[in-house]
Here is the input.
Amino acid sequence: MCLAVPGRVESIFAESGVRMGRVNFGGVIKNVCLAYLEEIAVGDYTIVHVGFALSRIDEASALQTLRTFAELGLLEDELAELKGGEDDALPEACAP
Amino acid sequence: MKHLSEYRDASQARAIAAEIGRIARQPWAIMEVCGGQTHSIIRNGLDQLLPPSVEMIHGPGCPVCVTPLEVIDRALAIAARPEVILCSFGDMLRVPGSRDNLFAVKAAGADVRVVYSPLDCLTIARHNPAKEVVFLAIGFETTAPANAMAVKLARQQGLTNFSALVSHVLVPPAIEAIMQAPGNRVQGFLAAGHVCSVMGWWQYPPLAARHRVPIVITGFEPLDLLDGIRRTVVQLEAGRAEVENAYPRVVTEEGNRAAQEVIGEVFTKTDRTWRGIGTIPGSGWKLSNAYSDFDAELKFAVAEIHTCESPLCRSGEILQGSLKPHQCPAFGRECTPRHPLGATMVSSEGACAAYYHAGRFLAHAETAPGAVP
Here is the structure.
């Protein structure tokens, strides 16, 4: 729950009056709530926890983080967790 | 099994670890509070890169692991009701309650659903007006903004068939409790970077000063973690006890004010029992009086249920850092991720599961009791 992956905001929209965005996590796109980051814009990178963007990070360090995660295999776990919620997967799918 | 040495860019990690070896002139015990950091340290073998004089103690920062048995038993009782759809983060499904876990209740026919975001519960509630949708709202400060917003939006959207079983826990009171515990060995802390992204780090200087303990706000990448350890050792060797932010690309001193405001509106501080540790004053959040109509505990009148932990499970000692997972006699034998005796073996952020998945159970037979791995 705490090992959040940085994602890139692809688009911003409103759903039931709530500010939402399509966020790209290394190829996996999820709807994310942007209500806590009024200033975030398309193209920005953000740290996301359980579907909520909580901090804006600069692109260079976000890309560096993604590269390091990919090289060290950490991305697989977090992406499995992202996908897991979508198809009602059993928790085994979330484990490393 | 994946070890850091198999990765190409391990040279930088080794360089920082070697630097730590040069700096550390005496033995130091440092706690990483967050389970996500434990997972990263063990999975990447970072603790094995450190000099023997620097020991990492794995802290209680795994939300699944410290959620009290009573809460799981209450969730099980609610989930068994025919009108209920119980929603939870995936990790919680296999956490053993007194008799069952949510997975078993689901297999027996209950409607238990894994959600990625608490907002998914609101969609489910809208689509199932004849059902009661209950969200098991657990976690540290990182999940609180999402969980609080779900409750706030449920009220705004007039969703009366949604409620939350809230069991939130907080990092600073846990650090306080660890420092006050008799026999405490922790001399420095890596503070959880993502908790600080929400709450900021302004709460930590009084803790560092009061307990003369360095606190370094640290990220989750291997190099972040090693740098956090390096900075902590530098402080310890110099006799300093300050708060340092080693994760400035994500963490600011004030944190996310908008999130703090919604948390302050929806939740209120409460004493909280931590599984394996006991009650820590002011260490949790519950729904505020203004939002009590969304409190599943009141809505379903779930009575206090007497609970009993497995007598074999020593997760309390694991969570307090006095026992390493592979030193537990049940580790990898009676207790595995598929058949966990305690929550620390369930969650990928739990120390026991992290050790198991990294193949550390192999050390079981080789390590003498009480030895440092």
